[in-house]
Automatic annotation (TrEMBL):
GO terms for molecular function: DNA-binding transcription factor activity; transcription cis-regulatory region binding. It comes from Haloterrigena gelatinilytica. Gene3D superfamilies: Tetracycline Repressor, domain 2. Keywords: DNA-binding, Repressor, Transcription, Transcription regulation. PANTHER family: HTH-TYPE TRANSCRIPTIONAL REGULATOR BETI, HTH-TYPE TRANSCRIPTIONAL REGULATOR RUTR. This is TetR/AcrR family transcriptional regulator. InterPro entries: BetI_C, Homeodomain-like_sf, HTH-type_TetR-like_transc_reg, HTH_TetR, Tet_transcr_reg_TetR-rel_C_sf.
Amino acid sequence: MSGQPETEQRIREAAFRALVKHGYADLSIKDIGDELGQNPSLIYHYFDSKDELLLSMLDVFVEIFLGQRAEEPITDAETELRRFVGQILHPEPAQVEAVMSAPPSDIETAIARVFVELWAHATWDDDFRSKTTAVEDGLRDAVERIIRAGIEREQFRPVDPEQTADHLLFLLKQGIHTQTTTNRSDAVDQVQTIVDEILADISREN
């Protein structure tokens, strides 16, 4: 089908915006079609169901948070780790627009809401759980790679890279979840403070 990759991407972007507005439980293919500005029947030419469409959308998180980072050399591990944490806690419009041509206006809130909605659905759906596991594995591997580079360049003390990466990823996830699902508006800032303390602890300069 002519233009298939471009159309699929437009549908994913529309699904992202619609999910932010309606939440997973109330989201329908019609809502996505309305957001797309097309008859909902078009969506079924590319995706068999709402779940198949949203499952494919999980790759958006990898593209936003990681991009081409896995192939890039690490010259300053601490700067790179701070950059990684910043992209997850405070995604900038520019980095999102590199993946989505028409993201929601409040992209930080939008990404957090979609993250919580899709990860919550993984509680009940094995396919989603497999995909969220793969996404988290990719994020953890990226953090572990940065920590190993910092140890090799003697920026960081010889900590356990896997355990430290898990610790940081758990913190980041909890901060996003808490800020999105409670009235703790300071949750992300508190996570940033704890991350700063961890970096100070593993840095050889301290």
